[in-house]
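Fold this sequence, please.
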Amino acid sequence: MNPVGHPLHQRPISRSLVISGLIGLVLFILFQIVPSLTQEGFGSEPAISKSEAREKAVLFATKQLGYIPEPGDHWIVTYKSDSSFYGYMSRESLLNDYSKRKLDRLYPFDTFHASLDSQDDKWANLAVDLNMYTGEPAGFTRVPAGTGKKANETVAVLSGKDDTADVISDASLSPQQKERLAEPWLKKWGADPSRLERNSSTGNYGLIYTDHSVKVGEAPLRYAFKFTTGEVSVFKPGFSAPEWHISYVESQTSSATRFTLFGYGLPTFALGVLALIYSILRRKHTSFARGVFLSIVHFAIMMISTYNMLPETTGTGMEDRITSIVMFVIYTLYSLLMSSLLYFSLVGGNGLWRKEEGMNPWPRAKEPGYGKYVMDSVYAGYVWAFVLLGVQTLMFIILQYTLHNWSTTDASQSPYNMRYAWLLPIVAWLAGLSEEAVYRLFGIRMLKKIVRSTLIASLITTVVWAFGHTLYPIYPISSRPIELTVIGLLFSYIFLRYGFIAVMFSHVVFDSILMGATLIFMREPVNVAAGLITIVMPFIVGYIVYRFNPPGRERKPQSLDLGPGPGSGPGIGPDSEPGPIV
């Protein structure tokens, strides 16, 4: 970080740091990339396209479910995942066994859910679940109009709610009648009804067959049925997580919600208020014009991301449209709030460091040496991102052997449910911009005014930031804050040593590599290309800035009234080694 008024120069990257970055990158590839590329079973082959899934669903519904295609019919295809069962297998280390036994082919936990958005109100709910890799049917729902509530796909996907939960099974049918209706479907799935245990008292379901000879851990194979108007209305073959696991996840999610609200939401709101106040108080030492462009870009990216998610889950029915409009309005207001928080954090943080420390954490574009400073910051960002990936990998290994952490799926955040999966990595720029501005540029200096210690201020803002990630599907929920506290302190170190631009790029590169890898693992050519471009995009952006600000083109900016300022504090001078952050 440079003192105010001094020529811009970025701290050189040491040989030891480069070596650390290479080691971190190797660890990341060996322990996170290679296992994903060499795994057996599903995920090792590309998913079918949604148009192909739509065609297969229509064909199955026409041949097996009594559906007659009409010109106004529209089929919505969404990705769904049995997060509970997948999490149970992940927790008990059963995933490899599940794939080796080929159970994921007949009873997939990841499916494409094709549902009819009918205009003639003939169907209350007509849907086919398909194996997302082979296109084979994996279950269905068919509820005629007038016998059930219209399914809302937008709510189902965004909330993870089971869209068959509202389907009420006909209780007037005798057990023998139910068995006669269920038997043909059991035989289609290769099951022998005479070898299965029957249970008619099954809560929401009208009939469940259990095959105790096929188990995954404690979970036996089940064939669940519901009945409406004298026919099978819901058929779900597969496995269900044990009740104790479901209760554990619910308890953990409840705790994570509290941590997010009280550990992240309220403190972040307080930082936003303080950022507004100190933007006004330090207005002589900063500029309200600064941050406008980045805040507008941030808002635009958030709106593009919102648009990218909602249309794929939106039907043509009135309820779906209303839900989508309400969600879009909510996301718009939230985007405005977060972009405002970013703006005042940039303005207030810049003013605080200039006034209180006499430091220049965020140089102006017209300062001498700005273009080269940005490119050097990009280089530092990449090297530190490699270090961070290695640290994250080590943290995963440590937490796996100490807390026995595990993760599961989240269909609501999956690129398969986005309009354009290749737009996923734009989210990396949201995190790099807003989180580094709020919790590092503004947060550290603001908290230091209160606690009088850079180390403690960095720790507090890092913990607040870490609590904002507890709702990720990683358990126990304590593992995520522990991992991110270590990574967040490294982000704080990068900021104090290299400045805001470098830490922003390190964060963007870090997330871009992770999200780019996600696209590459989808194995579709367009997504693989997008994933590779994503990884080099921060360099491209930095180079464009450099080309627009080459050496010798800068002009000296108007000076600001900086006051005497205390000069450079411990660990943040132009030539000082930060060592421990204090």
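The longest strand covers residues 207-216. The two ends are 16 Å apart (CA to CA).
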